[in-house]
């Protein structure tokens, strides 16, 4: 929420610092412009023209740079006596990219020896350019702003020669929650000589090399008023400092570093601090100290996304000037102290994503008449905080931002919103509200940035008349809203209507009415009819989730207008016909899930052009023919082609071109030929399902090389789907957590094929396997003697083969034979009832029992794959992700119950059963 005011404060302080320089310059400039006798010096004019030549200036901002008197050019100022240029201001005041010049800084600037003020922040060099070392020779500089120039390499230490500098900004101003490669680095030693500095911004500069002495170095700057070291990869915030030099510090921004300690005690001596930002670190250990109360001048305290625990110290009440207090995303808990509610200067309060308890009443807000933004809520979603507010309460504040997450606010829609006519963000997420949203709320005629009432039990219809601001979000997920899909204004970018009772067709004009949609989630409703062609006009769409509806008809051919698409999920509908040949021009596409439809035909070759694809789910359709080469899909994690009519050989190229493949399911198709040896090179594979095909030949001996299944390492984070995409947009986080638990499922299922030969010895080195199913093949020979190495195995099915031998004793734990009525053999109590080498037939009863269990198992594994494929991309928000995770845990428990059986039948001839 509103970080604007914070940046305003920074600008304010900078302005104060600069006012000295600026007023000085104004006088000089005024003189320069009036006095026509003092003209700019020719070599300086030429130097400026060289600079101009190096810049692309499409909007003509340097068009005044013509004629003899360069002192009159815009952005140029001269000394009123010498005529020398002392000021060059090409500052990017409003920060708009469009205003930036592309180009490079010509070293001709070195001629401008009298420069005191240099601001080139409007220049957008193409990146990859070294920091210009001549800057260090402009020794008269007092003001230097090269922010946002994206230099690489090392900051030249000769900047230390600029001993008159008051203001130094080399920061890149990227928000601290966005991680970027830090290409510019420095050891910071040159800084110590800049003892006049009042403002220092090295945001985004890599200070790893200054780990141990960045603080002592900064401590050499007694005049410092503003210090910005956000996102500098600083690993350590020293706990001790013998004495503090920079006691004038008013703004301290250390956000986005890698601190893991607590807030050091010396920081509480900086009693002039007005702004403290330690957000996005891992400051962690323990509670927020009581000494916070010493920072009495604080107006802005930002501690977002750290690991603070415990409650808010009571001394917070001493910070009577506090206007912004952000504590979102910590691990704080307990009751919110009364003293917080005494802070009558508060404008913006964000304490959400912690685990608060107790009650919040109207009395708490009596003194908070200036409150404009408030965010309160819990994460994980324990409803332990209750709003106890009477229905006739008229709040003293007029909010523009209201966010209440996972609290008991309902059951009625809060009537105190009746007078909140200036709201632009309303988030009442998982707030236990039921019934319909009252008409008076819609009649407030609010213009929304965000309207989020997800995870309640709201019902009824939502009017079409709502108004939205640019790039806004509406989230009605998981309620009981009904009726036709509502269409709102063209300003909506994020539309989440998942899991409601919307019915009828997808409106045909959706693409015309909301052309700026980036995220469309209308999955899990009762939508019917076909997918309208007008969806294709949504040229900015990144995510389209329309799974779990009743849609029918063909998939329209419009995808080539959607270059931003990242996820397509059309699974679990009744779509039919062929896949359109739309697989071009989608360089960002990560996942396609078309599973559980009635699609048919062959897979278009153009699919191979999708190099970014990570998930392809085509299971449970009627696709046929050979599968085209996917050689270019080098990022594939999950390939699920199960339950189709694909035929032909398994492409060996899968093994070569998809080094990151985690899950490969070809189950229930008509694939023929042998298992390609190249599959053995899939080092991340942990689920391999080729069951129910017509594969023949041997199980490759190299199968024991599947390195993920082999490794004893418990390193759990190195798999692609363990990564997270985080996208923060309009105060909302979109977290795409790749299957966080699925990597624990390890399975090889080759059952019901025509595989022959022996079980390769190598299989027994796949010690991480928990399921191995080779049943219903023509395997012969002995079971490898050391099959007992598979200590984690929960399901081993070798039945209905032609195996022979007596191998039970190789198992360490006899309990694994339990529950196998059809099993006979040493060392089971049933004894050795067969002769070595003689085929053994499963009894009819046992067979049935095993069959039903096997079905269960197959269902289970199939479910796992179907489950994640179906849910891929659906869990757009943290809350959704969490519910998925719970569901999955629940599911996993069931798996354990259902699958703890063990089938081991030796020497089985299916033929002999008859
Ligand atoms: C030239 O500028 C200085 C300040 O830099 C000022 O004091 C002086 O009055 C100016 N001279 C004239 C003639 O305006
Ligand atoms: C910072 O620089 C160090 C080497 O000095 C490098 O190892 C590290 O990856 C860099 N950090 C970032 C975020 O670029
Ligand atoms: C404080 O700053 C002065 C001037 O830069 C320096 O001489 C002194 O060593 C600094 N003190 C500490 C403790 O760093
Ligand atoms: C902080 O202030 C306290 C009390 O005023 C003083 O004893 C202590 O030395 C100061 N610490 C530093 C690092 O200046
Ligand atoms: C907070 O204020 C109270 C009362 O003015 C005072 O007793 C207490 O010491 C202060 N605490 C801090 C940490 O400043
Ligand atoms: C609040 O709203 C009610 C009903 O909409 C109205 O009667 C009342 O005057 C409003 N009060 C304030 C303080 O705006
Ligand atoms: C695969 O990539 C290569 C090299 O980028 C390209 O030439 C080829 O056309 C691509 N194949 C398909 C089917 O897109």
TrEMBL record:
Segments forming domain Leucine-rich repeat-containing N-terminal plant-type: 44-79
SMART domains found in the cross-reference section: LRR_TYP
Subcellular location: Cell membrane
The UniProt record lists the keyword Zinc: no
Highest rank taxon of the organism: Eukaryota
Signal sequence, renumbered to the chain: 1-23
Location of the Disease resistance R13L4/SHOC-2-like LRR domain: 246-422
One Gene Ontology CC term in the entry: plasma membrane
Listed transmembrane segments: 859-880
Pfam family for this entry, one: LRRNT_2
InterPro entries in the record: Leu-rich_rpt, Leu-rich_rpt_typical-subtyp, LRR_dom_sf, LRR_N_plant-typ, LRR_R13L4/SHOC2-like, RLP23-like
UniProt KW keywords: Cell membrane, Glycoprotein, Leucine-rich repeat, Membrane, Receptor, Repeat, Signal, Transmembrane, Transmembrane helix
Membrane topology: Single-pass type I membrane protein
Family according to the record: Belongs to the RLP family.
Protein known as: Probable leucine-rich repeat receptor-like protein kinase At1g35710
Species: Prunus avium (Cherry)
